[in-house]
Design a protein that fits this description.
This protein is mainly α. The chain is 52% helix and 0% strand. The protein contains 5 helices and no strands. Helix 2 crosses helix 4.
Length: 75
């Protein structure tokens, strides 16, 4: 099983965010809202970074199942 714990910080790099904006705008460049984002790419990158910093990362923690939590009485 692969671990996905350390993906949040690399996703907040400027180059990665800009590339995601460019990839998402493929075949949509004639739309007004997409054109506006591409013209002000640095501005929207910073805006997205500010919004993303308010989220917390989820840490994995061990949990017990109901079956493991039950105590079996042996008579």
């Amino acid at each position: 099983m692969r671990s996905y714990n350390n993906l949040y910080e690399p996703m907040l790099q400027d180059d990665y965010i800009k590339q995601c904006f460019i990839n998402a705008s493929k075949k949509k460049k004639n739309r007004n809202d997409v054109r506006e984002v591409l013209e002000n790419l640095n501005e929207h990158t910073e805006l997205l970074k500010k919004r993303s910093c308010s989220f917390r990362t989820i840490t994995n923690r061990a949990s017990s199942t109901r079956a493991a939590a039950r105590k079996h009485a042996v008579y």
